[in-house]
Structure formats: structure tokens, C-alpha cells
Amino acid sequence: MDSDVIDILLVDDSQDDVDLTLHALRAESLANHVFVARDGEEALDFLFCTGPHRQRSFEHPPKLVLLDLKLPKVDGMQVLQQIKSDPRTKTIPVVLMTSSREERDMAKGYNLGANSYLQKPVDFEQFRKMVKLLGLYWLVTNQPPITTRSSPQGSVEE
Amino acid sequence: MAAQAEKLVQKAEELHHSRGELEIQSRMLQSVLDSMAEGLVVADERGKFIIWNPAASQILGLGSANIPSNEWAQHYGLYTEDMVTPFPVDQSPLANAIRGKSTSAQIFVRNSNRDQGIWIEASGGPLKDKSGTVRGGVIAFRDITRRKADECEIRKLNDELEMRVTQRTVQLEAANQELEAFTYTVSHDLRAPLRHIGGFSRMLIEDFGPGMPPEACHHLRRIEDGVRRMGLLIDELLNLARLGRHALEIQSAELNSLIDEVVALLQPDAEGRAVTWKIADLSPAQCDPVLIKQVFQNLIANALKFTRPRECAIIEIGDLQQEGERVLFVRDNGVGFNMKYKDKLFGVFQRLHRNEDFEGTGIGLATVQLIIRKHGGRVWAESEVDKGTTFWFTLADAGQSVDADADPKIFTNKHASAGA
Asked: Which of A76, A148, B107, B389 sits CB 3.0–4.6 Å from A69 for a disulfide?
């Protein structure tokens, strides 16, 4: 997978959740440009073009970050905070997707600048419906922010 | 001359008489002083003791002594509240009294005859002559050792109590935090694997279903049903836990509008069925409307559920006065339950019916009880198998708001329905 052209950065430590989410995205043909990070550190490396992703460029941020809150190493809230406090990444839409419906998490997430907070429904049908709506909205309906760099846009798309 | 002599004799008699009176008064004073339980000491303006009653000696352990006033503290062993600093004599109530001031003080006394030490409370005031000139001072004092000990004991007990309350509060807060952590875990960690089970079952059915024997598909659907059910259980359990932490917002609530909302909400359950609603005109109640609506919702949903086998369901909601207390009720003519299981009714996950007959999670009535208890009220049920069930509940603060006389409709309504 060419990690330069990424629509969705999916950050989730559970292989089961990753498979289910990809399955749901695939059903809507939204799974072609997904990068999966299995912990907070990997997600940050990807977004900030560091470590194994130092070859990446800031010019092609993902159109959407799907972020689980409970993550190894660096947890979801910290990832969110770093994304939203850095001018290079703060315009990237971040959707928190989590198992819990804790009001504290919700409030904290929105305070840190999350664009949406979703609880993964137990029922797979509902989960799939949610992922579909989510993908279509953020990748198709929504107008993404224009990158702050003055480099030509759209030219990288194959 | 004779007249003068007569006058003199009269004067002498008067004098004699008044001397007798004086003697009587002096003896009376003496017996008063002798019989007093309080110590009484009078000193003249130079600090010389002129009255010192027996109780004074008994309390202090020492008698009157002809010593200068600046040696009182040393001689009698007088100390301040800290029990070690000699009492400053010029601040003692007697010294103040001689200077014309009325004061009182608590003094610790320890001397050779009072080696354990005692506490006295002394109050003094000036003695003035006819012209108002201060001629000395008087102090009265009593032994308050016992009272001091009691006060000390009370203070100690209070301190202990305070400490225990603080300890318990800390423990309680810790327990609350643990509970919160627990509910968080339940919410997050139990839900995730459940989602995976459900998700992969669905994927199996969809991706491989056509090639699978029908029985295998059936088993997979059973797995999905189980997942859905457990998801529901987790959600309701979490709601119950959240409810426990919810702070009450008491206000005057229109019960009828709450009930109307609930009935509208539950309309799908009554769809296509013959349901007779008998809802009394209820006066407002002091309660948390959000929570009490939940109570009505759970009770009415139960009533609808357990009247399902009835050709015509009758659901009645009203209130009445019982021993000066307002009691609300929700009554149905449903399948009822055996009263010997009534203790299980309000337990979490407790069910009195098989899930195939009447679905449910066993959390609804536990929730009702939690809400009613939070309001300081009680909830109970009366039932008879095949006849129906009545749930009763009270709200602690709502006792005075019902007024049956002012609204006779409530009564007629009740009578009409009681016969139904």
C-alpha cells in the first residue's frame, strides 16, 4: 500500500475491531486507502512523519482519523491532543470511535477538539451502518480543509 | 428633762432591739454560708480575707490564710487553663472584684491537699458601701472537675467521630472510584469481545451462509441473539450504575403529563391490542421528573408485557392516601406472580418468568427500586397468579400534595375501576 495517499488512518489495537471495521468499509468500497496503526505511537509516527514514516510528507494528510481511545503506549486522548495542538495536523478531522459511552471521555474528547464521538454499537448491522455513514460523510460529502502548504493540490492523486 | 430621759431609754431599747436583729441576721448569714455547697470568700480592699466559708476550705483543700494577695496563687496552687502556668493573681476574679470589676474564670487548683488537682469556676464582684465606694470583693466558686472531665471526654469522642467520618468518607470515595472504574471496564472491555462475536457471526452468515447447512446458519443466528441480549444487559446494567451516581433534581412535577408521555412512548407495545387505560387525575408531586418518568415507564411497560395474554388488558394508574401518606400505584390484570417470590422481585437480574414467555433483562424493577429509594420512598407489589399485579410506591416528599376532597373525581374513578 502506498502510504502517501491515505484516506483513512484507522487507529485501533484490536485486530478483531480492525477486521470488522475494514469489512464494513470494504462493503462501501472505502477500504482502498486505509492505513492501520495498532497503537498511539505508530499513529503519531504516521501523522508527524517520524520514525518508520519519516519518508512521508505532511502534504498528504489523511482525510480522516478513526481513533480508538484505549490504546497501548500512547492512549487515544494523547494522540488526539497532539494532533489538535499542532498546526500541521490540527485541521485533520478526528472521529473518536470507542466501546465506552463514558461522559467524561466524551467531554474530554470534544474539549481536545475531536470532530465527532461515536460509540461502537454491539450489533454488527448497526456498526456497519455507522461506518458507512461515517465514511461517506467524511470522504465524500465533507469538504476537507485546504492544506496550509501552497503546493499544488490534487496532483498527487493517481 | 423627764422627756429627754424617756427618749434616751427609748433609744437604748431601740439600740438593744436592733442589736438583737443584727445578731439574728449575722447568725442567718453564718448558717447560709455554712450550708452553701459553693465556696464563698470575701476580702477587704487590702485583700485580707474577712469571710471564708467551710465549702471554700473543702473545695480548695486549704483554709483562710493571712497572706498578701500576691502570694495567693502560690499558696493555694492556682494555675491557668494549661494547668502549669501560675494564675496571674492580679487577673483573678477576687483581685478584679477588689478593683471594682465583675469577672469569672476557670482555674486549675493543685496543692498539697489536692495533689490530683481540681478545676474550679469562680465568679467575683465588688462589695460597695452606701456611697458606692468599693470596700472589697466577693467570689463564689465551685468544683467543676467532673464537668471538665466530661467536656474533655466529649471533645475526645467528637474528635474520634470526626476522624472516623473522615476515614469512612475516604473509604467511600475510594469505593465510588472503584465502582466507576468497574463500570468503565464493564462498558469498554465486556462490550468489545461481544461486538467481535456478533460481527464475525454476521460475516460468516453473509459470506459463507449460502454454502452452509441450514442448521449451521440457525446456530449462528442463535449466537447473534445471545450477543444482542448480552449487549442489552450490559447497557442496562450501566444505566443502573449511572443512576446510582445521578444527583436528584427535585421539583414539582405534573405526574399526568409524565404518564401521558410514557403511554405514548409505549404505544407500539399496545398496538393491535385491546388496552383499557384508567388514569386518575393526579396532583403534582415533589420529585425528580426524569427519574419518576423512568419509574412509570418501567412499571407500565411491565403491565403491558404481562397483560399480553389477556383479551382485554386493563391498566390502572392512580393514588390514594394510606396512613397520611400518598401512595401511587400501577395496576394490571395480567398473569401475576406467586407472592412467595416477592422478595426476588426487585433484585438485579432476577426474573419470575421464562424468557420465552416474557422477555426481559431483570433490571427494570431493580431500577424502579433504586429510584424510589433515592427519593426516600418505598416500593412494593401485590399480586395473584392469573389475576394481576399492583405496584405501589411512595415518594417521601410528596405526602402532602394529594388532596382527595378537593378532587372527588379521583375517588369515583377509583371506585369505578375497582369494580372492573
From this structure: A76
Contact A23 B199 (CB under 8 A): yes
Residue B327: CB atoms within 10 Å: 20
A157 touches chain B (CB under 8 A): no
Asked if residue B283 lies in contact with residue B252, where contact means CB atoms within 8 angstroms, the answer is: no
Q: Do B192 and A102 touch (CB under 8 A)?
A: no
**Is B182 near chain A, with CB under 8 Å?**
no
**Interface contact A20-B184, CB threshold 8 A:** no
CA distance A68 to chain B (A): 11
CB contact under 8 A, A16 and B203: no
**May I ask the CATH architecture of the domain A8-141?**
3-Layer(aba) Sandwich (3.40)
Compute the CA torsion angle B367, B368, B369, B370 (nearest 10 deg).
Answer: 50
Domain boundaries, chain A: 8-141
Residue range B108-140, pLDDT digits in tens? 999 999 999 999 999 999 999 889 899 999 999
Q: What is the ipTM of this complex?
A: 0.73
At residue B397, the pLDDT reads 54
Q: Give the burial class of A150: count Cβ atoms within 10 A of its Cβ; 0-12 exposed, 13-18 middle, 19 or more buried.
A: exposed
Yes or no: say if B98 and B124 are a contact pair by the CB < 8 Å rule.
no
- Report whether pLDDT(B18) > 90: no
Alpha-carbon distance of A21 to A98, in angstroms, equals 12
Q: Which residue of A has its CA nearest to B238?
A: A101
pLDDT of A147 reads: 57
